[in-house]
Design a protein that fits this description.
single chain; alpha/beta; Spore Coat Polysaccharide Biosynthesis Protein SpsA, Chain A; 2 domains; two-stranded antiparallel ribbon
Amino acid sequence: MKMLAIIPDRGGSKRIPKKNIRLFCGKPIISYSIEIAQRCNCFDEVMVSTDSEEIAEIACQYGAKVPFMRSPETSNDYAGLVEVINEVYTEYLKRGRKFITLCCLLPTVPFVRTDRILRGRDLLAKENFDSVLSVTRFSYPIWRALERNDGSTAVKMIWPENYPKRSQDFSPVYHDAGRFYWINPDQCLPKKRLYTDKTGSIEVPESEVQDIDTDEDWKISEFKHRYFFLAAVAPSAFL
């Protein structure tokens, strides 16, 4: 089965300039995603989709392919991930290469585990899902969420009917962990969706999940990376 790993990495990050090639514990953060995909030993090709020559050069230094540059239409602030994946898939088809399965691995996931990626691949095939993604539990029931208006310190429950209920009375709910997406392109891309009514999931613990949108997020991510890798807390699990 022909499998393609796609790492989307456009230039022009607004919140953290050059985020995806910024040094993370000593090397460009995108290099971790490239090396993780390579260690999975299941991909026929690991490619980076980018509009930046600088990113392309760094990606190639770490062994990824950049067979074409991303178009302006998928390089703006409004293009979604599925549009980027569809462009990559279509460009490969034009070059006479059809991949049966795609895995989109985000460029800022330095401690994603290869065994979880491979479990996603196996689940996609075993259950005949259209796609499989990583999820993690909300640490506290969202049904007891509070809201407050801008400029006010007053709070109120969004769902006040849940006030009498205890946190343990609610079933767990999950959110997209933003690690990876396995997809069957023939099913997902025509629908322009990464999630369908036939989407499976691999649960990952909250300790492995970290959005990186601010410098504070960056520091937390580096701390987690050092804890798992440099402190040798079960490092083999991440290989």
